């Protein structure tokens, strides 16, 4: 193993090291002043079952960050392995025109056909350096069928079971 001290000169090494941890892929949606908003994120995690809490961590430098920081309600959509195109689209765009979606009672956009979905009310926001840690209280959840889209080492793929 290569050992290093994290810092500006080893930022790429740290990113590559963090990339060894495989994650699922999500789209986080909220209602912004000018309409529905979505962003791809892999910084999703469960926090607590009682109360039901989850978190995600948007980058402060993201142009969509202010809308998510202000959002009282949001939804986290876990993507299935066949939804890479949706993942790629929301890394750069936030237009919902071509999607199968609806709004919940808080006007949060809900994308249909995902592997799982968590509708949340903002519980807390914490400082996370160049990111914010947004904790949501799950108010509704939905589960679908299929296998997850997985992100590891800068690439997307699928989960393969072992015996």
Question: How many domains would you count in the coordinates?
Answer: 1
Rounded to an integer in angstroms, the radius of gyration calculated over CA atoms is: 16 Å
Low-confidence stretches: none
> What letter string, H or E per element, gives the SSE order?
HEEEEEHEHEEEEEE
Count of DSSP E strands? 12
Q: Which bin fits the share of residues in helices?
A: 10-25%
Task: State the end-to-end distance.
Answer: 28 Å
The number of helical runs is: 3
Label the structural class: mainly beta
Q: According to CATH, what is the class?
A: Mainly Beta
Chain-averaged pLDDT: 93
CATH superfamily membership: Electron Transport, Fmn-binding Protein, Chain A
Write down the CATH topology: Pnp Oxidase, Chain A
Shape: globular
Largest sheet: 7 strands, antiparallel
CATH architecture: Roll
- The largest sheet has its strands arranged as 3-2-6-9-10-5-4
Percent of residues in beta strands?
35-45%
């Amino acid at each position: 193993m290569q050992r290093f001290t994290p810092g500006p000169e080893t930022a790429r090494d740290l990113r590559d090291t963090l990339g060894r941890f495989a994650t699922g892929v999500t789209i986080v949606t909220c209602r912004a002043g000018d309409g529905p908003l979505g962003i791809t994120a892999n910084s999703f995690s469960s926090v607590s079952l009682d109360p039901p809490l989850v978190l995600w961590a948007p980058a402060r430098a993201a142009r969509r960050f202010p809308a998510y920081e202000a959002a009282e309600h949001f939804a986290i959509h876990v993507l299935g392995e066949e939804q890479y195109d949706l993942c790629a689209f929301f890394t750069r765009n936030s237009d919902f025109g071509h999607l199968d979606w609806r709004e919940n009672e808080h006007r949060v956009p809900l994308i249909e056909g995902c592997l799982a979905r968590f509708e949340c009310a903002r519980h807390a926001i914490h400082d996370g350096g160049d990111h914010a840690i947004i904790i949501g209280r799950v108010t509704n959840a939905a589960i679908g069928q299929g296998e997850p889209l997985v992100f590891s080492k800068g690439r997307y793929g699928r989960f393969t079971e072992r015996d």
